[in-house]
């Protein structure tokens, strides 16, 4: 009898161990399936006027950007990434739509607004159950309905798929964004020390609290609670964080100025503001890790265009090895720092020279999420999924076309990049130039007279794209 009981107890203990093991296995498999089959969160981060050479991961040894540098080591770094235009508003339109700003009638800053008919990433993801939030500089139309201005139209982020918003129309000081910096007498400055430019609106209502100190921290203070709510509701989120840094007036607080004691004061402010932004990116990553969603969150980072021309000419900001700056069709105005990170999914430590652009974000995100864009509306971007996954070493077959148009000084500039060659009109009145940007990234030798047939072929390619742009903005893509 005792032997029977002893044997029974032994079998029962073995059963419990096997059952516990099975519970663990099924629990693990369930967790794994949820991670694989669930919807990843997506975060789009963009800096404003950040030069290619003003981050550590692109070789700047003086600037302090440890969190961005870590992302470059852990994720994918693009060395050949282009903004859709050499200035802010057009590029921002391209990010959200996958389409050239010329298709949308957004030719320059302040000169338009995103059309309601455009399909945006937040609209498409919202329809798939994502919570959508926008935080920072919008610059795709007015955000105050009763404030009529001389240029642009009323087209706030909540018209385009965003549920939660904390936004300014355009630039603000990067430290104390409600005050005019003591050294600043440009746009937005007021004699009484207040800021006369853009203001923050939270879900359409002017904000008065928590607007002191570093502007990047002020933005992140609103973005993190939005993501916390989505996590609490077990909902995936799409978060757009568009920093004002380091657009002028660029100001750093005392703590960040102190990090660069040996640099000229203007560079201390520029570098200090960039380091403050980098700290907030580090804060964001720590938040994702604490909430155990780091491996289920995709982060894309880039700048909207090259660095400020005034700061480049003073030797304060840098486009790295490239010629030119913001407002130029040279590489320095278009080629920007860029990263992508999705731990355990994107290839870690990948450095790619694949030619890519801000128009590629929408098709890439949709491809990763197994969603298909509308076949009726032409896109200018391509999916980078196989690139960031490390599955493809082929080069881009779709050319990258850019433009910048303004009545001021009859500006009508273009660039067309097809593989190693680029044609561009750098300045008003210039003839079209041709460069081999693979062997001459500094654009020092114009090949137009040496290779007239190639120039003619690429000009024809650009004209074909421009005609497609024209048809789009005149209504071909939409049913009114």
UniProtKB/TrEMBL annotation:
It comes from Formosa undariae. Coiled coil: none annotated. Residues 40-370 form the Sulfatase N-terminal domain. Keywords: Calcium, Hydrolase, Metal-binding, Signal. This is Sulfatase. Belongs to the sulfatase family. Residues 1-33 form the signal peptide. InterPro entries: Alkaline_phosphatase_core_sf, Sulfatase, Sulfatase_CS, Sulfatase_N. Transmembrane segments: none annotated.
């Amino acid at each position: 009898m005792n032997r029977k009981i002893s044997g029974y107890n032994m079998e029962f203990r073995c059963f419990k161990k096997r059952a516990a093991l099975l519970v663990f296995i099924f629990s693990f498999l369930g967790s794994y399936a949820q991670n694989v089959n669930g919807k990843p969160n997506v975060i789009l981060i963009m800096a404003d006027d950040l030069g290619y050479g003003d981050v550590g991961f692109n070789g700047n040894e003086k600037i302090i950007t440890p969190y961005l540098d870590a992302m470059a080591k852990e994720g994918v770094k693009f060395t050949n990434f282009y903004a859709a235009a050499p200035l802010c508003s057009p590029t921002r339109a391209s990010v959200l739509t996958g389409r050239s700003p010329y298709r949308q009638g957004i030719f320059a800053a302040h000169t338009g607004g995103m059309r309601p008919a455009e399909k945006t990433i937040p609209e498409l993801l919202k329809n798939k159950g994502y919570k959508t939030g926008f935080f920072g500089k919008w610059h795709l139309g007015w955000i105050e309905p009763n404030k009529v201005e001389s240029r642009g139209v009323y087209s706030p982020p909540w018209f385009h798929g965003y549920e939660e918003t904390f936004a300014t129309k355009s630039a603000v000081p990067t430290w104390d964004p409600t005050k005019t910096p003591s050294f600043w007498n440009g746009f937005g400055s007021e004699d009484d020390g207040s800021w006369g430019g853009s203001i923050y609106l939270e879900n359409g209502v002017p904000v008065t609290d928590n607007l002191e100190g570093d502007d990047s921290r002020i933005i992140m203070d609103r973005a993190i609670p939005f993501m916390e709510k989505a996590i609490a509701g077990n909902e995936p989120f799409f978060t757009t964080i568009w920093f004002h840094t380091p657009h002028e007036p660029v100001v750093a607080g005392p703590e960040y100025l102190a990090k660069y004691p040996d640099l000229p004061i203007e560079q201390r402010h520029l570098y200090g503001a960039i380091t403050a932004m980098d700290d907030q990116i580090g804060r964001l990553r720590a938040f994702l890790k604490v909430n155990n969603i780091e491996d289920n969150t995709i982060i894309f980072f880039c700048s909207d265009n090259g660095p400020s021309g005034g700061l480049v000419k003073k030797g304060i900001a840098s486009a790295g090895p490239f010629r030119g700056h913001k407002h130029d069709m040279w590489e320095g105005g278009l080629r920007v720092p860029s990263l992508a990170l999705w731990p355990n999914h994107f290839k870690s430590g990948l450095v790619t020279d694949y030619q890519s652009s801000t128009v590629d974000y929408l098709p890439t995100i949709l491809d990763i999420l197994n969603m298909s864009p509308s076949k009726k509306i032409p896109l200018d971007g391509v999916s980078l999924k196989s690139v960031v996954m490390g599955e493809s070493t082929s080069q881009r077959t779709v050319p990258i076309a850019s433009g910048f148009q303004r009545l001021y000084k009859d500006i009508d500039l273009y660039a067309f990049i097809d593989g190693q060659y680029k044609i561009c009109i750098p300045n008003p009145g210039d003839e079209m130039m041709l460069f081999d940007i693979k062997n001459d990234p500094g654009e020092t030798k114009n090949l137009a007279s040496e290779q007239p047939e190639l120039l003619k072929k690429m000009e024809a390619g650009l004209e074909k794209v421009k005609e497609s742009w024209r048809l789009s903005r005149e209504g071909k893509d939409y049913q009114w």
